[in-house]
Automatic annotation (TrEMBL):
It comes from Paenibacillus catalpae. This is Fructose-bisphosphate aldolase, class II. Gene3D superfamilies: Aldolase class I. The active site is at D93. Dihydroxyacetone phosphate binds at G191, G220, G221, S222, N244, I245, A246, T247. The lineage of its organism: Bacteria, Bacillati, Bacillota, Bacilli, Bacillales.
Amino acid sequence: MSITSKPQNVVTLKQASEMAEKGMYAIGSFSPRYTPVIKAVLRAAQKAQSPFICQISQKELERYRITPKEFAGEFYAQMKTEGITVPAVLHLDHTKTFSVIQEAVEAGFTSVMIDASEKPLDENIRISKDAAVFAHAHGVSVEAELGMIGTTDFIETDNDEELYTDPQEAKRFVEETDVDSLAVSVGTAHGVYMVKEPKIDFARLEAIRELTPVHLVLHGGSGVPAWMIKKAVQLPKGGISKVNIATDLELSLLDALGRKERMTNAELKALAPEELSSGLAAVEATVLDKISNFLGSKDRAGDFLL
């Protein structure tokens, strides 16, 4: 499916973020990881009448053995089958390879993330700017990362280093790259918190907002207490407008299936229908909980004039 034929309620990340900032809520960027789980995310958002983002990262595509075209195809098919009317974004998360971004744009993703955060600042700026020029030419939003957001499970990223985002560097980065959204490192991490405690450096977040008007993204939303998320979203001059949630969804799925080990996409699709159904119901409940009790996006679909 091409960008030109996407449903009217499938919007760019920039459009969604603008509405979220005005309404002082965040939009959940949910990673179903497996294509059958896309349905659970869509159903939850529709029930909650909430705008939402459906995403997958380059490493998830590789780990679960899915192509951007396959993921996008299932997303658009389920949007139609489930009769989804709430605003939606199809987002490519952490990606380091330009060809994967090209594949995603061609497949109908409306937002992509270029992650060159492990590179020196000048190189990160150059790579992110190139990605922005390409994506914008195709009507697609671009997210980038400055600082390094740690990980505990190496599913979304392959580095557990953490380097907080410098507000002054953020100002230069945004001005020179023209990206639409910026993932900032302010204390959260990808994966399950087992040793360190989740935290958010609110002073750093406010300093970044003071120096740049770009839409801010919080990665590592799984496991972060609700009060932290709400405070980060509702900062006086505008806070986080997109929160990434992946691990909590997979934990819900595996728990409902009585499993501990991750599967490939093909393995999940091979499950008996009744078994898969119980797993999807668990994910749907988790997404509903995040929308209602963490993000503040419940019943905000009407904010969008589609």
